[in-house]
């Protein structure tokens, strides 16, 4: 089975007490500005490529926890959008950990070569955990105020000149797809919003 996605866009989502999704500043920026502009530029390089974004890629009516972790397994690399709340989410942490597990599983040395995680900083990188602070990233915090319809010349330049080469390198270093890529375990008590799902580790649940 080949990869389905070139990369998986990982960002913090938010829910109210009733499990309804709430829009966040990072979510609005990712979905309305960053993702469409990045896809337009990426498709110039790889016209048939698919990029995973939860609201665009998960079919309605599907079991989203299962689909989400299968999408991680079927993505060549991870594009996390880092902000302080990202690291408080068990799902975001599991997405990041899953790709780190793959790097170790496939013996990809990030000290020598490009890794499978290409982080973008939305804001406030000084408060990140040490593992994130010591990971080379691309800061877009000066562009995080942009909204759809704003002048996006500078954003497009940063995407094309800085992010695109890093993503190309990560996609090229991705190992051959394996059905047993290790995945971080998510227990049902860690799911936000809670739902009857027992978690998984490795392969199809």
Q: What attributes does this structure have?
A:
single chain, alpha/beta, 5-stranded parallel beta sheet, two-stranded antiparallel sheet, 6 helices, 37% helix, disordered C terminus
Number of helices: 6
Spatially, the strands of the biggest sheet line up as 4-1-5-6-7
- Would you report the number of β strands? 7
- Show unreliable segments: 189-205
Give the structural class: alpha/beta
Give the topology.
Blueprint: E1 5-10, E2 14-15, E3 21-22, H1 25-45, E4 51-52, H2 54-57, H3 64-73, E5 75-82, H4 90-105, E6 120-121, H5 130-133, E7 138-139, H6 153-173
Parallel strand pairs: 1-4, 1-5, 5-6, 6-7
Antiparallel strand pairs: 2-3
Helix pairs in contact: 1-6
């Amino acid at each position: 089975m080949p990869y389905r996605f070139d990369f998986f866009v990982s960002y913090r989502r938010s829910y109210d007490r009733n499990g309804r999704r709430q829009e966040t500043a990072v979510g609005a920026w990712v979905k309305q500005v960053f993702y469409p502009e990045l896809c337009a530029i990426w498709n110039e390089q790889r016209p048939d490529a698919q990029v995973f974004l939860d609201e665009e890629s998960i079919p309605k009516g599907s079991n989203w926890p299962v689909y989400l972790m299968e999408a991680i397994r079927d993505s060549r690399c991870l594009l996390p959008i880092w902000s302080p709340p990202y690291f408080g989410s068990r799902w975001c942490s599991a997405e990041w950990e899953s790709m780190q597990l793959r790097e170790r599983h496939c013996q990809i040395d990030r000290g020598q070569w490009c890794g499978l995680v290409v982080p973008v900083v939305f804001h406030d990188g000084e408060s990140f955990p040490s593992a994130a602070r010591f990971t080379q990233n691309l800061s877009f915090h000066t562009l995080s105020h942009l909204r759809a319809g704003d002048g996006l010349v500078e954003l497009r330049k940063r995407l094309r000149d800085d992010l695109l080469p890093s993503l190309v390198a990560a996609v090229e270093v991705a190992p051959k797809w394996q059905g047993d890529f290790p995945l971080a375990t998510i227990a049902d008590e860690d799911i936000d919003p809670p739902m009857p799902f027992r978690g998984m580790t490795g392969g199809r649940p």
